[in-house]
Amino acid sequence: MLIPIFLTVMAVFAQTLFVPLNLVLLALLYWIISLQERYWPVVAFGLGLLFDLLIVQPLGLSAIVFLFISFFCWLYSRKWRINHPIFLFIFLFVCDLLSRVIWGLELSVFQAGLVGLLAAIWGFRKQRSDEPVRVKLRT
Amino acid sequence: MRKSSTTEQFFLFGLLAFILLLIESLGFTRPLKSTMEIPIVSIKSQTFGLNTFLQYLAGWKIDKDEIIRLRAQVNRLSSTSAELISLSAENAALRQQLNVSLSFSSELIAASPIGFSGGQLTIDIGRHAGVSDGAAVILGRSLIGRVDRLSENQSVVLLPISEGEKISVAVRATPTGVKKASGLLIGQGDKMILDKVSPSEEISVGDLVMTVGEGFPRDLVVGTIGQIIPATGQLFKKAQVDQVVDFSNVERVFVVKF
């Protein structure tokens, strides 16, 4: 648990300091998927507050953005598989562009696509690892 | 005790965020933010230094050394050239003695960058140091940008290359300083475009692009004309403007205090 928390905080700092990629969205997605039904609102809220402090935004703005993103993910996960690479790509792509508009950062389709791609690769790997092991029986 | 459901948690934290935003708009969160920002600004400052170290380790710095040196040289030369333009015979000696001279008399506040991302530069001073919203940020005689948003201990500077940033500028001949044209400098994320230049006005590669005093102090260098964009059937002339300051490598900047 400590390692993911440390990596999340590092991702937030890295994004605000020198990495133009939306790492915080990837971190949020990790928490939503790994926490599933549990404490994602707390994580989204906390992450939002930290991000607001770092990028000098009104306190609570990113928290609202992250809460809505998480809520949509949660609703989606109740009906369909959230690990699906195509869903993750489109979702992260759209979320990246929307969040950049809200934060007043410059829009980059390439960076949004890259974030979507990273999420899709992760989703693909997770989907593969979650699949039940098939054993061939010799008759 | 009953455990709250996820939906309840969502609405509870959503409400909390809205209340925070409301309080923020009234300015009541400033003391809280100010306290919380102190360790954050300190960590950011340390981590930003680490970035330079990591770049050096990765070898990027070694490859870029020559480019950085040349850019610094261009910056110095542009600053010197701009200085010559505004020098008057009466106070030339005094200005030379001071090394850096400005065409306006305002107090300057020194600041260090602590973040550079997405066309924005974060500096380590805010309202506490006397920075105000919209203040110009300079380095020597070059324009770095303007303060876009700020808190008690840090400010975000919007650079001229930032997407959608517009600055009224004048184009001046490099050795003589004669004004050749007026135009509008538009940031496009990774480059700057000079637009709205009248077709009757002549501009050439290497000319200085300088502020005219609208929103910024006068005669600050923003860049040099890098390439004239051929205009076929267009009302105005356009040109690509090269920056004279490497924004990601500045170590100290100055905020102009109003």
TrEMBL record, chain A:
One Pfam assignment: MreD
Subcellular location: Cell membrane
Coiled-coil boundaries: none
Keywords, comma-separated and alphabetical: Cell membrane, Cell shape, Membrane, Transmembrane, Transmembrane helix
Transmembrane segments: 7-33, 53-74, 86-103, 109-124
GO biological process terms, semicolon-separated: regulation of cell shape
Record GO cellular component, one term: plasma membrane
Entry superkingdom: Bacteria
InterPro entries attached to this UniProt entry: Cell_shape_determining_MreD (IPR007227)
Membrane topology: Multi-pass membrane protein
Family per record: Belongs to the MreD family.
NCBIfam families in UniProt: shape_MreD
Protein name in the entry: Rod shape-determining protein MreD
Automatic annotation (TrEMBL), chain B:
Pfam families: MreC (PF04085)
Annotated keywords: Cell shape
GO biological process, one term: regulation of cell shape
Gene Ontology cellular component terms for the protein in this record: plasma membrane
Domain Rod shape-determining protein MreC beta-barrel core span(s) in chain numbering: 120-257
Domain of life of the source: Bacteria
Recorded family membership: Belongs to the MreC family.
The protein's name in its UniProt record: Cell shape-determining protein MreC
Origin species: Candidatus Nomurabacteria bacterium GW2011_GWA1_46_11
Taxonomic lineage: Bacteria, Candidatus Nomuraibacteriota
